[in-house]
Design a protein that fits this description.
The chain has five helices and four strands; from the N terminus they run αααββββαα. By secondary structure, it is an alpha+beta fold. A four-stranded mixed sheet has the order 2-1-4-3.
Length: 164
């Protein structure tokens, strides 16, 4: 085998491994793969697969960042929520009274943000449930029977009563 044929084989391997990586991701994926590579380990050479793997991680990180930015923007301006019931989380936080204690749980919303296999038939809403400013729900019956599950709910209810 000649040096030229080895270079062709290596180049073909890089080309095949990086075929799925779009050009706009290639510099970031390469830089992060190289930065995270253990260069002191002489047994394992830097491979194109590590760049492709880093690209897949970058795509997930970018999607999560976009979703987080969208949710944060919606929190600052509540009218921009796609689903007001769950604040675009896909799940509705709800306080549940069990064994003489309040527990906080989540319930899948009925909107398309919730996973399809978990979606509820209808979202939690008035009059059966009361929602505070943070988007947390509590059953009206439990609230009347046991009182507020947290100080935030107490303050919310007091503020609502003073407005009425």
């Amino acid at each position: 085998m000649t040096a030229g044929s080895e270079a062709k084989i290596a180049l073909a391997a890089w080309e095949e491994a990086l075929a799925e990586v779009p050009d706009n991701y290639l510099p970031r994926a390469y830089e992060q793969a190289a930065a995270n590579w253990d260069w002191t380990d002489r047994r394992n050479a830097f491979t194109p697969d590590s760049v492709a793997e880093r690209y897949r991680l970058l795509v997930v990180e970018d999607r999560q960042r976009i979703e987080a930015d969208r949710r944060n923007a919606a929190r600052k301006n509540p009218e921009t929520y796609q689903c007001w019931h769950c604040c675009d989380l896909g799940y509705q936080p709800v306080f549940v009274r069990e064994r003489e204690r309040w527990y906080q749980a989540v319930r899948p919303c009925s909107c398309e943000i919730a996973p399809m296999g978990q979606r509820s038939a209808e979202p939690l809403r008035e009059p059966e449930f009361i929602r505070n400013r943070l988007g947390e729900y509590v059953s009206r019956a439990d609230l009347e029977r046991y009182g507020a599950p947290s100080d935030l709910f107490k303050d919310f209810i007091k503020a609502k009563e003073s407005q009425a």
